[in-house]
Design a protein that fits this description.
mainly alpha
């Protein structure tokens, strides 16, 4: 059998086990000034994508109607 592991030293009042000191963050927010989060996609690209999708849907609809005639 092995000997039990020793416990913490009772003579020390404050132990720091490495890592980040208390009161400091370990994950920084990056370098640079604060910039608020934007909403994402602008209205312009979304309108263009919707128009292209609508044009494709109308093209396939017209093709399907022509095949049935």
């Amino acid at each position: 059998m092995s000997a039990p592991l020793p416990g913490p030293d009772p003579n020390k009042t404050s132990q720091h086990h490495g890592g980040v000191p208390p009161g400091e963050s370990s994950t920084g927010s990056g370098v640079g000034p604060y910039r608020p989060i934007t909403r994402g996609w602008g209205k312009g690209p979304l309108v263009v994508i919707c128009l292209v999708a609508l044009a494709c849907a109308l093209l396939f609809l017209a093709y399907a109607i022509m095949l049935n005639i």
